[in-house]
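Build the 3D complex.
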Amino acid sequence: MKSIISYITEILKGVWTLLTGMKVTAKYFFTPWKHVTQQYPENRLTLKIADRFRGEVIMPHNENNEHKCTGCGICEINCPNGSIEIITKTLMTDEGKKKRAIDQHIYHLGMCTFCNLCVKACPTGAIVMGQKFEHAVWDRSKLTKVLNQPGSKIMEGVKD
Amino acid sequence: MDELKEVMITTDEIRTDEYLINMGPQHPSTHGVLRLLVQLEGEIVHNVQPHIGYIHSGIEKMTESLSYPQIGHLTDRMDYLSAHQNNEAVALCVENALQIEVPDRVKYIRTIMSELSRLASHQLWWCVMGMDMGALTTFFYGLRDREDILDIFEETCGARLTVNYSIPGGLMFDIHPNFQRDVKAFITKFRTKLPEYDRLLSGNVIFTERTKGVGFLSKEDAIAYGVTGPTARASGFACDLRKHRPYSAYDKVNFNEVLSDVGDTYARYQVRMQEMWESMNIIEQLIDNIPEGDYAVKMKGVVKLPEGEFYQRVETARGEFGVFIVSDGKKNPYRVKFRSPGFSNLFTINHIAKGWKIADLVAIMSTFDLVIPDIDR
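Done.
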């Protein structure tokens, strides 16, 4: 007799634990307005990305198409996977001196691990991290970017 | 008793030949590309042989061509759920070698970040554990709460998973102005959500029947196999480095080392659940007391370690993670060895799972909380 009672209580206890779990799920089932799902990509316009989010390396230019990059190559040295290539050119100043300037700041987005070491190392703050995160392209060659815009030059007063 | 003997005799008579099956490398319950060669008789496990190396990425070799600040971002990619602790281990190792004392602010923030990371890791472990047992519901509940921590990481560190936040000499950034507010809001919220986890899974009769009394690991075996972390603490082996070898700000907080003497699958489950409460206690003690100061000390452009061998270990969500650097005085390390907790924990599986059913093997493996890139490196 005792074994039958314990058998039945075991079953009832088991059913009770299942019901306790079901209560939790039922609570969320009947209060669906508290759901946490985001409707991406429909909510693109209202999507909030943190300011520090590391999406890609960008070089900000001002309205006169000027940037702060001196072409020193410190970001290239600090990059752990060779995502950055610096190609410099030599300019003649008005006084007749030779001066190094950036020709092409090549950035391989496909190799970048977004570790922030290049941005941290940059002595003039020429490169920063952008918040764009949708990087899918059809052609792999589009992942290689030139960060300085065509015809751009260095800002007045920026020295390395 | 006689009835039992009869049953045993009949099972002896229908005994079949042993056969081998591959569990993985694409099996969902192996949590990645782990291949287990399982020797079965019927559904009783006779032998389990883990075959690793499917996601070997050669990180130890790669570090030999990198400078010391660059090593950190690779350790994110080993145990990606304990990225903060891995970063911290490399940073502490380099700082100890250079004999740099970081400001208290750095220590406090590193500790808070490590504990948040541990919480996020245990949340993911909990939801995947439920999924391995066939309860898909838990997966969504765990990920829902983990999302809040990842948002905090994104705001302060700039990344959600591969954070690269602790660097030699301090931190990558100072904390975000909203950091303290967000962490406190998260703790308040999660204190109401964690009992929900217990109601959903811990008491569930199917779950307890499948985990209680299954897969024992004794304390002696845990020590002999080099098991660390919650897996070893469930067997009664007091190995919490945060308690016994405090680093960062762990000597300034009060918390209990969660121990259990049982050593079965359910004990390993309960130890991790209790650790989540302890992590929240640690964060609450620190979050209001972050001292003012610099978030990093000024380091030289080229970091060169003195000649010698340096070792630093930290407690990650999975166990003891160690960094061993051999330096020859140049800017690159001569050799780096990572001691990953998952590697030692995995190789007890043959010892534990022998004699249990194949369904129990899934439950046992789930409580090890394996991260395969951490094992293969």
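DSSP finds 16 helices and eight strands in chain B.
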